[in-house]
Amino acid sequence: MAIDPSSSKSGGALLGDRTRFQLDPNDGGVYVRSMAAKDYLGGVSELTYPTMTVMRSKFDFLIIETVGVGQSETSIKDIVDTVILCVQPGSGDTIQFMKSGIFEIPDLIVVTKCDMEKLSNQTFSDLSGSSSYLKNKNEWDIKIILTSSHKNIGLSSLEKDITDRWKWLIKEDRLNKNRYLQDIEWMKNSIIREFGLAGFKKGFEKINYKKNPFSELARISKVLKS
């Protein structure tokens, strides 16, 4: 899933990320879904979570690319199992990394274009020096990986770390718990977006969080509209 920014003037979006992917048109196992962010903040779209839920039931692996994010777009953490932050060489120093909110959420950090050796090594060093400030809510050891798609460097290591992260989530019994909390967060944000904080407070005690989040949201919305 590729989330593209929407124009503040026209409201439209180019949805051009898919044109950069080199895919075999005969490979029926790969599906690309582009989506406009519209006026939704946080680096994703309002429909990213429900669309992701449908696609997750169909495909073995799902990658969500957010719009280009800055220091505070962190909604992706409430959607996916593993957050991978891609950092370009020369994109900041230690202080910049320390003050950036986006660095509080990743499970894996990928320094791209490591064939630009001097810049990428400096960025890797800065990130490693900021490792104590990479705040993660659990005991998972955040990995920093150097990669280059141009020279095929580090991609096997990245694949291994993603697999290790998945195994760790299952072993620590965190996968289903995290997804349950994500369901709750999505319902909460959806209610606030449509009815405001007052509407959420009004419907808070009526929400059954153990039910399907989509049918429950429809039920609560109907209650709040009545």
Give a topology summary.
Layout: E1 2-4, E2 34-36, H1 48-56, E3 84-87, H2 94-99, E4 108-111, H3 117-129, E5 143-146, H4 155-171, H5 175-203, H6 213-225
Parallel strand pairs: 1-2, 3-4, 4-5
Helix pairs in contact: 5-6
Q: Tell me the radius of gyration.
A: 19 Å
Name of the CATH first level of the largest domain: Alpha Beta
Give the count of helical stretches. Answer: 6
| Low-pLDDT stretches | none
CATH topology of the largest domain: Rossmann fold
Please name the fourth-level CATH homologous superfamily of the largest domain: P-loop containing nucleotide triphosphate hydrolases
**What is the H/E order?**
EEHEHEHEHHH
What is the annotated CATH architecture of the largest domain?
Answer: 3-Layer(aba) Sandwich
State the end-to-end CA separation: 36 Å
Helix content: 25-40%
What is the number of E strands? Answer: 5
User: Domains counted in the coordinates: how many?
Assistant: 3
Mean of residue pLDDT? 85
Strand order of the largest sheet: 3-4-5
Determine the structural class based on helices, strands and strand pairing.
Answer: mainly alpha
Bulk shape: globular
Largest sheet geometry? 3 strands, parallel
